[in-house]
Design goal:
This protein is an alpha/beta fold and about 250 residues long. It folds into three domains: about 100 residues, no CATH class; about 80 residues, no CATH class; about 60 residues, no CATH class. It starts with a helix and ends with a strand.
Length: about 250
């Protein structure tokens, strides 16, 4: 039994180190709060944890018979490791494609933009026309202002596209501007929680109670809804003097 535990323990340690390295890099660069919540990646993380930290070492514990020839044992463990690597590649690639690149303010709302939302032609245009804010593989998450272009015809074209489910300006980094440049417009769009039509009355009450618990004022026009995927949302509460984000509160 000691041999089985030793081999399984080494397998668990190696799996944990590799998984921690990959998930730690993704978390530090892109998935820090509120990224992990707004993207809804917990199911992907669960697959990785089950396969790499539970299933793999457990199967190794079962098959690590000290009487088994070492070549046969190495073959069996190699098969387990290959399955783990396949699961790790699947999970890591899904997390990479879905990583949050931007949190945008556009017109009257806050929205998260994932890497998978940006088409190759838009990436090329952004790198040509707006290199300072264009995304690269190493770009961390950024808060940006995404105004409609000054050209009226182009702005109308984008609005028509977004109405019918096409690309919106938040999918076009060539138009992005620094977050600070959009703060005067953002100030005019702030709402009290009770004014947020995107929230049900029950959600408004939950958000208001959580704001009070954090020393914030729900009746003050100091917040906007921040949208993620599949209807996930948070209430972003701003300091009305500096417009720094003070808190991100779940209304659910």
């Amino acid at each position: 039994m000691r041999f089985r535990l030793s081999v399984s323990g080494l397998h668990l340690l190696g799996s944990a180190c590799v998984l921690s390295l990959i998930l730690g890099a993704l978390y530090a660069g892109w998935y820090r709060w509120p990224g992990w919540y707004l993207t809804g990646v917990l199911h992907v993380l669960l697959i990785l944890l089950v396969v790499d930290l539970a299933l793999g070492p457990t199967v190794t514990l079962i098959i690590a018979n000290p009487r088994k020839p070492r070549r046969e044992l190495a073959r069996d463990i190699s098969i387990i490791v290959i399955v783990q690597i396949a699961a790790l590649l699947y999970g890591a690639s899904a997390l990479w494609r879905g990583r949050p690149l931007y949190y945008t303010f556009s017109t009257d709302r806050l929205e998260m933009v994932q890497a998978s939302d940006l088409e190759p032609d838009e990436l090329a245009l952004a790198r040509r026309d707006n290199p300072a804010l264009a995304p690269h593989w190493y770009s961390p998450r950024r808060w940006v202002w995404a105004p409609l272009p000054a050209d009226t015809a182009e702005a109308n074209k984008i609005m028509q596209s977004s109405i019918f489910g096409g690309k919106d300006v938040i999918d076009m980094p060539r138009y992005f501007k620094p977050w600070s440049a959009g703060l005067p417009q953002l100030r005019t769009q702030l709402l009290a929680v009770g004014q947020m039509k995107q929230l049900s009355p029950a959600q408004q009450k939950i958000a208001a109670a959580r704001m009070v618990a954090r020393g914030l004022i729900p009746a003050e026009r100091n917040a906007l809804v921040l949208w993620g995927v599949n209807g996930r949302r948070l209430v972003a509460v701003f300091d009305t003097r500096t417009l720094a984000i003070r808190n991100l509160i779940s209304p659910d």
